[in-house]
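Practice record 12: protein with acetoacetyl-coenzyme A.
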Amino acid sequence: MGQGIAQVTASAGLATRMFDAVPGRAEQAVAAVVAQLEKLVGKGKVTSEQRDRALASLRVAMDVRDACDGVDLVIEAAPENMELKVKLLSEVVLDSPPHALLGSNTSSLSLTELGARIGAPERTVGLHFFNPPPVMELLEVVRGIATSEATVEAAVAFAAHIGKTAIVVRDVPGFASSRLGVILGAEAIRMLESGVASAVDIDRAMELGYRHPMGPLKLTDLVGLDVRLAILDHLTRELGDQFRAPPLLRQMVRAGKLGKKTGEGFYVWKDGVAKPKA
Ligand code: CAA
């Protein structure tokens, strides 16, 4: 998600710095952005001047301090774990200017808790992007209980600047999007578990019968099985048993079958394309 978000902000002309805790990962992400922009130039969707301008706006940061120095906005896209996000954003608060907006790409966690625990509740806001960020039009702006009006306004203006449509949502577990999205995905996995149909046919039901661009199992692969499991576990704790994760999902995560990013989930993925499992 960080890679896609950086592509979006750099393409909108915003000076963008990427940092990842895993050494070399940010460099890989920049290389992937270069490849994506190249593809878009090939398709005639982006001019070579636009590509060059975007790439000139993008660089890797050496550490959190370098990433945050003098910025107006930080977007955290770390894994879906409150403790990890608190630790990272607490560092960000120390290293960024006092006016900077503190955005989190969390899919379900509480912005109210995050803002309170990092000691900057009025500047903390949910900036929830959708995969793949360069393609999906929505930006879900999540308002914590103490998020200031000025922060929400700045977040909505940021959405417009990067060409997204914002919706402003109250800080409830799973917001407006994940709360609905994960239910469909979890039910599809339960149907696969109980042998209702093959993964391909369960997906076809939604693709051809409901005109979804991709079925719920392929979408779970795209988003990441680990991400979906973390959201379901959080929503089960917060909202109840209707969000209980299917055992098959937990088992696949334990086996390291996380979907597109690891090459296997409900499908086998090669060069970004999903193939049905034998
Ligand atoms: N980065 C940039 N562009 C991409 C891309 C990527 N990773 N993947 C696809 N695209 C572009 C392609 O270049 C193509 O562009 P053009 O039309 O300009 O040529 C366009 O998207 C369509 O791609 P394809 O023709 O390859 O494939 P497709 O028509 O099957 O579309 C898809 C692919 C856009 C992913 C589409 O299947 C889709 O919209 N799927 C649903 C995605 C979705 O629901 N996302 C939300 C997930 S939930 C989430 O992310 C939130 C969370 O908290 C977990």
